[in-house]
Each structure stands twice: as structure tokens, then as C-alpha cells.
Amino acid sequence: MSAKPVVLVIAPQRAADPDLLALFRSGGMSVSTVAGPDEALRQRNGSHPDLIVFDTEMPPPGGMEAFQALRDAYHAGLIVLCRNADSLACILGLEMGADDVVERSRDPREIFVRGKRLLARLEEAQAGPSSPRMVAFAGWHLDTGRHGLTDPNGRPVRLTRGEFALLAALAASPGQVLSRDALLDHVSHREWAPTDRTIDVLVNRLRRKLGEDPRDPRLIVTVHGVGYMLQA
Q1: Confidence of residue 154 (pLDDT cuts 50, 70, 90)
Q2: 146: exposed, middle or buried (C-beta count within 10 Å: 0-12, 13-18, 19+)?
Q3: Separation between Cα atoms, residue 187 and residue 165, nearest integer Å
């Protein structure tokens, strides 16, 4: 990550919230805006953002493929702004690998703080954990140092940052039930709200990647009214 973090804001007609842009700039960050993911992809040879704020409806202009290409092109934190926390836009953003989703109506200062926290987590992840280790469960191996997961046949399985953080939290306490609030704090460093689907979406994504039957999951188990548990 550069000494002066670079923030790229994607907004229709580049009409991003001026207060949010001012907060990023006053926080010592370099900020630029583009009108859509296609424009951002055209500029990728000259722009290396550390954080992308996606302020548009989902699916975005250019479709979900454009969003996926944008996420794959940059090793940057990705925040999606959407109308409501439980809206299809937020769920789609999480499904496609966003690190965080925020209601557009929130105070720009909250969005700015969440962006700063995400940048701090990314910088910490780049430095690596103080005590990296390999965690094994049901034949799977989670490498906390390299942020990697391999299946029982030794094949690598790609995880988003949110998926990895969630699985690492569950794997650190096998056989123990973790609440959605505790998991969300680990993944995004924020409090859970009843309308927040972040953890549920990430759990569903992880179950698919672990080859789980969604009707009868055996590894990541739902404890109704409490949270989730990784079977030891």
C-alpha cells in the first residue's frame, strides 16, 4: 500500500458525494472519480487504488461481469454503497466479493471511517499475522499466513477477504458457537444489526466453496437464534 492511500470512487456521471470526497482528502488520501466500472478498467494501467467505493445501483452498468472484472483487476478494498442494508444491491455486492456494504444514506463520516478501517485491515493483512499457522478441519487446510485454503485433494480454493476472515474466525474456535455480531466484528469491525445480511451471505458462499449441501450443512452449522459453528 502506498504512503498516501489512493481512493477510487465510482459514481454515475462522477456525481459522488462531495462531503465524502472531502473527508477522504482531508484524511490524507488521493481521490479520483469515474462514471462506471468500464471507465475504471480502461484506466487500470495508470491507476492503482488501495480502496474502491462503488456508488451505483447493482447490477452495475456493464453488468455483473464488469463488477467481477473490476474486483479481479485491482488488489484493492471494495465498499459498495446501496439504498438499504437488506436490499438486492447489498446482497449482490456481497455475493460478488465486496469487503463491506453501506447504506448510501449513512453519514459520510461513517463511510469514511469504515473505509479507513478497511485500509488498516488490508495493510495488516499485507504485513501478515504475527503467528501464522495452518489450521486443519475435515481434510481442509487453512493457511493463515498466506490467506490460502486447500481442499482435501490439495487443490487451492480461492476465497475473498471476507470469506477468509469469516472462516479464520470459525476455525480459530472449532466446536464453539459464534454470534453474528462477533463474526461481523471480526470481518468488518462493526456491529451487527437485525437487517444486516453480511454474515449470512458470506456463510452461504463459504458453504458452496466447501462443497456443502445447503439443505444439510455438516461443516458450518447454523445454531438458530445464536449464530454459526465450525464442526470440530
Answers
A1: very high
A2: exposed
A3: 5
Measured CA angle at 179 (ends 175, 183), to 5 deg: 95
Question: 116: buried, middle or exposed (CB in 10 Å: 19+, 13-18, 0-12)?
Answer: middle
The domains located in the chain, with CATH, are 6-127 (3.40.50.2300), 134-230 (1.10.10.10)
136 three-state secondary structure: strand
CA angle, residues 182, 99, 115, in degrees to nearest 5: 95
Please write the tens of the pLDDT for every residue from 158-171.
888 888 889 999 99
- Cα distance between residue 132 and residue 154, in whole Å: 19
At residue 191 the predicted structure's pLDDT band, cuts being 50, 70 and 90, is low
- Residue of 79, 77, 11, 4 whose CA lies nearest to 40: 11
